[in-house]
Automatic annotation (TrEMBL):
This is Class I SAM-dependent methyltransferase. One of its GO terms (biological process) is methylation. The keyword Transcription does not apply. The lineage of its organism: Bacteria, Bacillati, Bacillota, Bacilli, Lactobacillales. Keywords: Methyltransferase, Transferase. GO terms for molecular function: methyltransferase activity. InterPro entries: SAM-dependent_MTases_sf (IPR029063), TrmK (IPR006901). It holds the Pfam family TrmK. It comes from Bombilactobacillus thymidiniphilus.
Length: 225
């Protein structure tokens, strides 16, 4: 059984024959998708051989060697020219790293129509890259697992989208839905920023630039809640 986060990621994979899971670790997502017949074939890729070996073992145990291939390599560059994948999942990494993987994988991305991304932070950076590189955000999810809140972004190749600063930060779909987890995340962020402001204002030497930035962030969050 997948964790809530991985299940939410897997649920966004629909209508494709083949996918790659970049930084797959245990290959839980590709194994689930093939077993559920949501995809016919998959590739589990890893930059380091330790996790790749775990993937290989798990895939073998499930007798899925013929449907799930493994690849050692950096991001999407691990793909070979005859690997035809329709969708890439990149999950459980920082937003900057995910953006770097997309940047470095632009040749491979030309034939990949859909993306499902789960950045652990810096979601705005990922959204910015997507919407300036011909991907349109089609669905977003925000979920609570344990003490952590995760955002998952699904995108389709299309045209560039102009997003406002608020849409980049809060998520164009998430800010329309404003579900309970979304409210919890931003309520918590508001408190955190208010505490930060208080500390900045009590410091011996006032950092006005920082104070202005935190104030602006607070106003932005108050505007959405
Ligand atoms: N995707 C899984 C998930 O969401 O549960 C595993 C997340 S795990 C925290 C991050 C994995 O990404 C690690 O196994 C790491 O080796 C791999 N990774 C980091 N940078 C990578 C890159 N540039 N290309 C491929 N894999 C990478």
């Amino acid at each position: 059984k997948l964790s809530r986060r991985l299940q939410a990621i897997a649920d966004l994979v629909t209508g494709v024959d083949s996918m790659i899971d970049v930084g797959s670790d245990h290959a839980f997502v590709p194994i689930y998708l093939v077993q559920q017949q949501k995809v016919q074939t998959a590739i589990a890729s890893e930059v380091s051989s330790g996790p790749l070996n775990i993937s290989k073992k798990d895939i073998h145990q499930e007798h899925l060697d013929s449907q799930i291939k493994t690849r050692l390599g950096d991001g999407l560059t691990a793909l070979k020219t005859d690997d035809q994948v329709d969708l890439a999942v990149v999950a459980g990494m920082g937003g900057q790293l995910i953006t770097d993987i997309l940047k470095k994988g632009q040749v491979q991305l030309q034939t990949i129509d859909q993306l499902v991304l789960e950045p652990n932070n810096d979601e705005a950076c990922v959204r910015k890259w997507l919407t300036t590189h011909q991907y349109q955000i089609t669905q977003e999810k925000i979920i609570l697992e344990g003490k952590h809140i995760y955002e998952i972004i699904a995108a389709k190749r299309g045209r560039n989208e102009q997003l406002t600063n608020e849409q980049l930060i809060f998520g164009p779909k998430l800010m329309l839905e404003k579900n309970a987890v979304f409210m919890q995340k931003w309520q918590w962020q508001l408190t955190r920023n208010q505490q930060m402001l208080q500390q900045l204002q009590q410091a011996k030497i006032l950092d006005q630039t920082k104070i202005a930035a935190v104030n602006e962030r607070i106003k932005l969050i108050e505007g959405i809640l």
